Amino acid sequence: MSLIETRAAVGPLHRHISLRPEGQALPDVASMVKTLRPEEPLHCIRPGVIARAAQAFVRDFNGDVLYAVKCNPEPAVLRAVWEGGVRHFDCASISEVTLVRRLFPGAQIHFMHPVKSRAAIREAWIMNGVRDFVLDSASELQKIREEIATPDALRLNAQPGLFIRLALPETGAAINLSKKFGADFETAVALLRAARPVAGKLGVAFHVGSQCMDPLAWRDAMSLAGEAIRAAGVRVDVIDVGGGFPVAYPDMDPPPLGAFMAGIDAAFDRLEMPHIKLWAEPGRALVAGGGSVVVQVQLRKGDMLYINDGVYGALGDAGALSFRFPVRLLRRGQTLGAPDAAFSFFGPSCDSLDVMNGPFILPDDVAEGDWIEIGQLGAYGTCLRTAFNGFDRAMLVEVSDRAMLETAGYEAMDQLATI
């Protein structure tokens, strides 16, 4: 079975090829680069890192853990999440639903996008056995009710799980998701009352925002959810605390995961609603450390490095969001022990917006032909690749390395390797 997959713009929702060599130990990144001498981006997946992160989250969270598939739908990643004990999946499209159902026939799939097409609702309900749907408007509630009113559902009196997405105030997260989704307090109360008679399971859902560094954000959101439940005066079965759990980046050092779990548990206890079950939808927290991309330097101009991947490839967050990622140099030859220097990157496209300011810290003598591994890209890396300007070719391998940067208690990898 092949260890390497060569593909055009990454399309994991359309095909899956197992990358794990049966009966063999996975290689490390440096040896793969030495062997392949890649002239196109090389995506490196660390299944062990992902499985351990998933296992830790499942162990520490007092409820059901739903992996947010949008974060990285690569089948090798999904298999690692499953290996870590995750059996529930938060899907945002019918393509994600179909992918998860194909890989894991026994998985629990939850359609957690607040706005869905009618066709997607029907296919999820009829063809894939999906029973849980999130919504934040009366129109979406009506749409769901109409599209699941199949003869079999009516005959069996099958009722959906309905989750009311509650908008939150600004939390300081890197991305505020309540600007796009979520009902205001009064609307959420009305939706809870309207949904209860037709819901087999009723829930309140919220999302504090992506890469939220403040554990108190979940406390405040839980308190608001409790107020909405009491105001509605109906039985609620689940509170879904969403995702947003942060990971480490070179300029972001979040509290350990335990601080977030303790905050959620304490806030839940204060609600005094022991009959309610908790859900969470982590994405980045499970897979960020489990992916990296190896790029090659094609040109150096002073402190600007032209590389063969960029914002239209795996490095979109390094552009629009100015995320800094951990980097290490993989040299063609012997290291000379040069001092570190700060660099910015240009991607391969003709677009001058294809720039990543960093700064990215590398040895000062980095040169054309050297490779750079860029880490913490298991989240929103491969899945954001486009075919813009024709730069859509990449390879993907599974490796055994530790994460390049880990939150709380682990040393980072060496930042320089000679191949």
Topology:
Elements: E1 5-7, H1 29-36, E2 42-45, H2 47-60, E3 64-68, H3 75-83, E4 88-91, H4 94-103, E5 108-111, H5 118-127, E6 132-135, H6 138-147, H7 151-156, E7 161-165, H8 185-195, E8 201-205, H9 216-232, E9 238-240, H10 257-271, E10 277-280, H11 284-287, E11 291-301, E12 304-307, H12 316-319, E13 327-331, E14 340-346, E15 355-363, E16 371-374, E17 394-398, E18 416-418
Helix pairs in contact: 2-3, 8-9, 9-10
Description of the structure:
The chain is of the alpha/beta class. The protein has two domains: 173 residues, Beta Barrel (Lyase, Ornithine Decarboxylase, Chain A, domain 1), CATH 2.40.37; 241 residues, Alanine racemase (TIM Barrel). 28% of the residues lie in helices and 21% in strands. The protein contains twelve helices and 18 strands. Strands 1, 2, 11, 12, 13, 14, 15, 16, 17 and 18 form a ten-stranded mixed β-sheet that branches. It has an eight-stranded parallel beta barrel with strand order 3-4-5-6-7-8-9-10, surrounded by four helices. The longest helix is centred in the middle third of the chain and has 17 residues. The two termini are 26 Å apart. The C terminus is likely disordered.
